[in-house]
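pasting for ref
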Amino acid sequence: MSYEPPAPPSSFPTEIVNVLNESTPNRLRDVSTYAEALAEHKEREARLEEEADQDEVDERPDDLPDDVPAKATITIKEINDNRYYYWQWREGDKVTSKYKGPVNPDE
């Protein structure tokens, strides 16, 4: 074991390095335990989100056009006393719609 202190990763912000350098060995061990648990939690969350995104792609409706995302829903708009189906989804702050077809009055 070296008598020199370890070099921090270059990606660490100076504030974090300073706080760690001023910490006791017990506090550093607590930080290490917490950091490991937090890393595992974030990796698990990312994996679950990725799996959920994959599930959405797997559940893509057959009649969904290629240029419409799987998260789109069908809405009905009334224009000049006629009703029409539209695919609708959000892109950031904007709601995007794409025409699907007329609403069958027998439905």
